[in-house]
Amino acid sequence: MAPFYGRHPDPLASETILSVLGLSRALVDHFATGMSRHDLSMSRFAVLVRLWQTDRERAPLNEIAEWCNVSPRNITGLVDGLAAAGLVERVAQHDDRRVTLARLTPAGIRLVERVAAEHWAEQARLLAGVSETDRRTLIDLCIRLGSRITAVQQPTA
Fold first, then answer.
1. Using an 8 Å Cβ cutoff, are 114 and 37 in contact?
2. Residue 152: is its pLDDT beyond 90?
3. What is the mean pLDDT of residues 107-134?
4. 6 belongs to a structural domain
5. 130: domain range?
6. pTM here?
7. Helices 11-36 and 106-127, interaxial angle, to 10°?
8. Quick one: which H or E segment has residue 58?
9. CATH number of 50's domain
């Protein structure tokens, strides 16, 4: 049975948005469940991966916040939690002691290597059967929709 949209002038618009929202929620829930098996949130995992992908497995907190698209206050809480778990440590930057860096500990490196491998394998499993062309089309559509959302949120002069 088709969804009921009543007098909606563009029912396909609603169906499209509801499909994207449903997929987004399902993906977040699915991957959050995987992370929870390692006592991680998606946000904490993002911090670990970002640090792991840097040359020296450390970075200033403000850069990590920018990479992860979170506020400075939020990154402080994330790093505090990871530090309490022994996965990262705070260190002062040698040439500017006012700058605090987060650095992966050996335990953090071991965990992120294991969890990232599982996470990426799960991504591949979920996308099995979706062609490269369809994946690229989906990426393009997501980028275009994201750009459109940004454009309509901009104040008009």
1. no
2. yes
3. 97
4. no
5. 32-151
6. 0.82
7. 140
8. strand 58-60
9. 1.10.10.10
